[in-house]
Amino acid sequence: MLTTDVGLQIPDELPFEDWERAGRQLSGIVNSSTWWLGDWLVYGKEHYSDRYERGLLAAGLQYQTLRNYAWVAGRFELHRRRPALSFQHHAEVASLSAEEQDRWLDHAEKLKWSTKQLREGIRLAREDDAREAETEDTARRLMVPDGNLKRWHRAAAQSGTDLRQWVLTTLDQAAKAALEEDAAHPMSLNSSQMEEDGDRVDA
Question: What percentage of residues in the chain have a pLDDT greater than 70?
Answer without folding.
Answer: 82
